[in-house]
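lol ok so funny story. i was supposed to be doing the assay writeup but got distracted and ended up predicting the structure for this chain instead. priorities right. anyway since i did it might as well share w the group, maybe its usefull for someone
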Amino acid sequence: MVDTPLQNPLDIRAGRRLAMRYRLDHLIANGGMATVWLATDEQLRRPVAVKLLHRHLSDPVSVERFRGEGKLAAQLSHPNIVAIYDTFHDHGIDGIVLEYVDGTTLRDRLDTGPPLAPVEAIAIAQHVADALAEAHRRGLVHRDIKPANILLASRGAVKVTDFGIAKLLDSLDLTQPGMLVGTAKYLAPEQVTGEAVDGRGDVYALGVVLYEMLTGVAPFVGDTDAAIALARLQLPAPPVRRHRTDLHHDLEALVDRMLDRWPARRPDMADISTTLAATASTATFAPAPTRRADHRESRPRRVPLALIVLGVIVVGALALAAALVGRTDAGRGLIDKLGIGDRSPNASSVAIPLDTATLTSFDPDSDDGVENNDLLRFLRDGNVQTVWTTELYATRTFGGLKSGLGVVIDLGRSTTISELDVTGSSSGWKAAVYMADSAPDLVDSWGKAVARHGPIDGAARFTFAPTQGRTVMLWITDLGDAARVRIGELSLRAPA
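and the output, tada:
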């Protein structure tokens, strides 16, 4: 075969041989950074995929990022990650040789078919989570998880590809300054704001992918990429149940956790894989009890770009103002009054151990009277990242189904208490604290609340006159904008 590269080194077409062994057969894909060709490795006589950097991206940063893909991804060996075979530089052309996957992309599958069945979506997400768990274990973050980078092989395998903008956690960030890398629809909030990105950004992106697989739409839409990316800074993702009601509540809860705006509240990939496996093993995907839908939230969140940009400016201004105010005596006094400053324990009180206490949920308006009792252990495990959570409701007022929901702490004996602290919680919710000698079956039987607080944002301290009783109840009356409350830790204190 006659080779033409010497006459025109930048002529890339079918039949061209690169690096003296890879014959380009036909174009597979054309992305923003590179083209991908089906090629033949003439030495090993096997099909391969060859990724070639676009010639207009020959600046040092783009070339270094592209070459880095091969080096980084070559460190990974996993059945759900596309293997890297070789890299080359030939007459000004940079290329990466990859495992060829005969099949389609998840993007094509979503664009040409209906939303996936839960079992299929779970299987795909679990394979991706397993692949990313291995990458994260090696200190590598993908940073561009999206359906176009998830390959569905014709033989059933699922593989993650395109680590082109991945980076080692401790390495130089080639995307700085001012380069927003990744597809807007799948960017985590911290990527949008330019904060440090770690594996939790991949968790968020996979959450968006799982949401889209299950519903057929992304959680946020907009007129521009900027509007889509910035919307997640202003609003929580609408619940999956807005679009389909045949999902197991554990799957719905997982998606909600993955899309949490706060990275610390998201599960890690190992936890995601375990939860998906457990959900897939259930016999049916029974819907949770029917709740009234809030039709105002039935569509993906679309926010005008001007409003979003204004919101970002305001948030930034408030953050700067808070930092400056906190440097003055008057400012610190204001912060203390608002309850947004230091929440260290009161020196005039002592902690009450909860290791022997009994924790139960209190849901008098439901059939079984409890809600997520199996998660209550997380309220006293010393880790604010493990949480007890309510179910996801249609509105912040429980979808009109109930007046509230409580957590009851039974200390086993009468105790004088003056303080209940909440840490690691969601934002915008409201609650009251009640005390009694026993746990009544009705809310009204608890008597008068000893304290009320809200809206709560992350942490709250309920301080009240020393009150004696055996049981303490945190009674949630408003779920906040997310229509769900998460709490990391509860603690009680007594007068010193």
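Residues 103-303 form a domain with the Transferase(Phosphotransferase); domain 1 fold (CATH 1.10.510.10). Residues 305-325 form the longest helix (21 residues).
back to the writeup now i swear
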